[in-house]
Amino acid sequence: MARKTDIPRIQNPPSGDGHHITSRYMTASELAERDARQKTYEDMLARQQAYEDRFIRQPQQHDQPSSKGCVFAKSCNLPDGVINHDNPTGFVPVEKLADYGKFSLLDGSERDEAGNIPLKKISGSALPRSFGTLILGGVGAAGSGGRLQAVRG
To answer: pTM surpassing 0.85?
Structure first.
């Protein structure tokens, strides 16, 4: 059985001149009503926590767009052995297309019997004869990556 000190007290409505405030212990029906409101509130907090936990536990899955092509380019203004502009501030200078030297647009869509994608020149400068045939090799769907091989032909 709960002691009287464990039962909350509530203020009585003002009476008389209003300067003397009295209080009384909560009745059993008031305690039951308070407990019902508290349980409703705790249930709402549990639902809210379960809703938030769904997003915390499951990392958001971002659909990666499939790669449709590759670009291999290096500015002629960069020294040998350096393939990009590495600047701690993130600045990348704007360059003319002529700074990249001769260019060729290559395309490949069908795979050969070895699973490689032969690349064919679409337009641009002539490829040097020393390049031979370029193939994009690797396992997987076209455009999923691989390595660029120069095969002497």
So the answer is: no
End-to-end CA distance of the chain: 97
Residue type, 133: T
The whole-angstrom separation of Cα 122 and Cα 150 is 17
Beta-carbon neighbour count of residue 135 at 10 Å? 21
Q: Which two tokens stand for residue 60?
A: 């958001």
Residue with tokens 């699973």: 115
- pLDDT digits 0-9 by tens, 79-123: 777 777 777 787 777 777 777 667 666 677 777 787 777 777 777
Instruction: Supply angle C-alpha 17, 19, 23, rounded to 5.
Output: 110
Residues paired with 149 in a beta bridge = 135
CA distance 62 to 145: 19
Closest CA relative to residue 111, chosen from 142, 132, 133, 134: 142
DSSP-assigned states of every residue in 89-148: T-------GGGG-S-EEEE-----TTS-EEEEEEEESPPPGGG-EEEEE-SSSTTS--EE
